[in-house]
Each structure stands twice: as C-alpha cells, then as structure tokens.
Amino acid sequence: MTLTYVNHENISLRNNPDFSEVWLHDRIAENPAILGLGPLDVLDRERVQHKAGRLDMLLYDADRNCRYEVEIMLGATDPSHIVRCIEYWDVERRRYPAYDHVAVLVAEDVTGRFLSFMGLLSGSIPLIAIQLNALRVGDSIVLNFAKVLDQTALREDDTTNTGGEGVNREYWDARVGEKIMSVCNRVLEMINEKADSPQQFSYCKGYVGLTDGISTRNFIYFSPRKSYVHLSASLNEREEWLTRLDDAGLPATPRRSSIVRTTITPEQFETHHELIRELVDAAVENHQA
User: Are 105 and 128 in contact (CB under 8 A)?
Assistant: First the structure.
C-alpha cells in the first residue's frame, strides 16, 4: 500500500479552548504506550501526596518492575512543575522501595533552560522529559510524544536504594529468619573472595545493600523474604544471564539499566551454588571495571 502525504498544522493545546489537561490525561490513560515508554499499566490518577499535592499519573511497567511518576502540563515547562515532578518521584520511591522509580515530565515545550538544569542532576535522579507535539491533520488531531531527555541509566553501585532508615542485623533476623540471612552471608563471602576492597552489609528497612565502610556500593543488593531472597546484581551481559538463570530454574527479571534480579531459596542456593558464584564474580568484575 502506497502512503499518501497529508499536510498538517502544529497547534498549541494550551491555547486551544477545545482541549484541556484533563482531556490530555484521559488520552494518555486510555493508551499509556503513546508516551513511548513501553507497555504500561495505569495504577492511579490524581494521586494525593501528603503535603505535596497531587501526582498526575502513576504508571507501572510489570516486566521491569518499574513505576513512573508522571507530571503532565500544557505549554512550556516551568520551575514549579519541575520541582513537583521530582518531589512526587521522591515521595513514591521512599514509600515503595521495592520498585524502581522514574520521574517523567510531559510538556508541550521542554525548554533549553530546563534541560540545562537537569544536566546538573545527571547521575542523581532517574528522569525522563517528553515533549508533546499536537498536530492537526484535516479534521483530526494527532499527539506525538518525543523523548528529549533520558537519565534513567544510573549506576546502582553509585546510588543509594531507597529502603527507608537504617536498621541492624537483628531487625532482619527477626523479620525473615536466620536461615534466609545465612544465604546473604554466603553471597557476601563470595563477593569478598573476588572484590579488591572488602564489602560489608548496609542494613535498611527495605533492603540489604553493600558498603566498603565509606560509600554505598550496591552492585549487588538483597531483598530478603521469609522463604527466599531476591538478589539483584549489576551485570554487563544481562540478557545472557537472564537466560542462564531461567534455564537453571532460578526466576530472573530485568530491572533498570543492567540490573538482573533473581529469586533464591536456601535449597536452590545449595543446588546452584556454582552458577550463583559465577554471577557474583561477574557482578564484582563489572563493578571494579
């Protein structure tokens, strides 16, 4: 089938009385994939944030276990929307640390000043900026969403996972039991057999990370549960590791950037001891490189 060229006209939704932010919210909620972030589910709209206002939209990527805190506006970006977008992201990541979180700002005009400002936060805040272009084609309107900034590939070992305030080992022993925590101990032993700098646990309410005694080094971190532990590792060959782990019967899922998360029971640790050691060695090598 031969495509036919059709002339179009750029229009401003903000300056057009036939459209509103509510109308735009409805279109995105009907089909979140139009944002270009993949197949997403709508978890909530106009989500009330204590002392912080209302989050326009909360979206979820089940495959990546990632939540997107989306702030939507007509017209050009302004400082108040930028601050709110980051504030909503921060509230949600602290409240639900088991997920990855990404702040998303959608606007008709993402200004150069905004992009320069976000450059100052590079490596600190996972943020996506999307510019909306509304096009009139005959009697119809087309919404085109173009990603103009993507700062989601943060190194896990250089950032702190949001697991709430610090706790101690007794907290985790009481919460999940010593048997599960012994699996974490044995993984730590593997890490220190390979690592140049000795690592130790950093205990938080939402997860157990690593530290070299000076800085957070979460190239491997743990989310212990009563009958298993989620082990997350930063790896170069993520797709290869996902296949290897799944083939061995260790459920594995991709997370942000190069992170692979697998689920390990004490029994599986014994059965797949060597494979887990290979994974740990690969994560240590990736970190030290």
Answer: yes
Domain-terminating residue out of 117, 133, 152:
152
The answer on 172 and 136 residing in a single domain is no
More confident residue, 112 or 269: 269
Q: What is the pTM of this model?
A: 0.56
Q: Are residues 121 and 171 in the same domain?
A: no
User: Could you list the residue range(s) of the whole structural domain that residue 262 is in?
Assistant: 158-288
Does residue 236 share a domain with residue 141? no
The yes-or-no verdict on residue 158 having pLDDT over 50 is no
- Count Cα atoms within 13 angstroms, Cβ side, for 24: 26
Q: Are 260 and 252 in contact (CB under 8 A)?
A: yes
Whether 3 is in a domain gets the answer no
pLDDT tens by residue, 216-261: 888 999 989 989 999 999 888 888 998 999 899 888 877 666 788 8
Write out pLDDT tens, residues 40-79: 899 999 888 766 678 999 999 876 778 999 999 998 887 8
Based on the fold, state whether residues 181 and 143 are members of the same structural domain.
no
- Give me the CATH number covering residue 191: 3.90.1150
What domain count does the chain have? 2
